[in-house]
Amino acid sequence: MAHGYPRDLLERVLGDYEAARDPERAAAMSRYMRDRFPFFGIAAPARRVIDRRAQAEAGPPPDASALAAAARTAWSDPRREPQYMASELLARHVGVVGPAGLDLCAELITTKSWWDTVDAIAAHVVGPLVRTTPGLVGEVDRWARGDDMWLARAAIIHQLGFRERTDAGRLFEYARLRGGDEEFFIRKAIGWSLRQYARTDPDAVRAFVAAHATSLSPLSRAEAMKHLGGDPLRPTRPPAPPDP
Questions:
Q1: Which band of pLDDT confidence, cut at 50, 70 and 90, is reported for residue 3?
Q2: Which among 102, 97, 73 is positioned nearest to 85, based on CA atoms?
Q3: Which of 39, 119, 127, 139 could form a disulfide linkage to 29, CB 3.0–4.6 angstroms apart?
């Protein structure tokens, strides 16, 4: 199964993608991704129907080895939709992926890197792996401190779905650690992760942003405070005087 599953799955998926190809949509999707990847041009809902059917026809549920092989095979395709399929496949079977799959996540995050696949893997594969195997967080800490921008982004956003189970200390530490980063995708990730946690503990986020306002970028502050009353370093305008 480790060898047949990825080959059969990709053959089925690619055949159906080809039949559903939309050149006009493909061009628009590629432009949206700054022409980094070619596309078949299949909208996400239609692609997911194809993916689920192909996965059902490819055989029994895969083991960890088959999942890794399928992901790597998908990542070798120049078109982007196979990578979306593989990211969602790993998320669907994250319990099978298991703790050893964190290395696979790092490999995929740092290959053909862009926010679309990085975010999907971080939030829906890395996050659940860390939640079920807390010992993995040490490696994610190293991602946050490392030189690879995409691994750092993945570390910052991996708790997006944790809600009340968020390790707030670690979230704030990552934001503090990378707060001065000049990379747009890091600044955006900090703001996004803080904004998401603000749904659970708005006072904690408000206090953190106030305490670190001068070290966080304006983008990170604006994103974090989007629903909390504004940027602490941007004074509010006084009310207009009444009409005479």
A1: very low
A2: 73
A3: 39
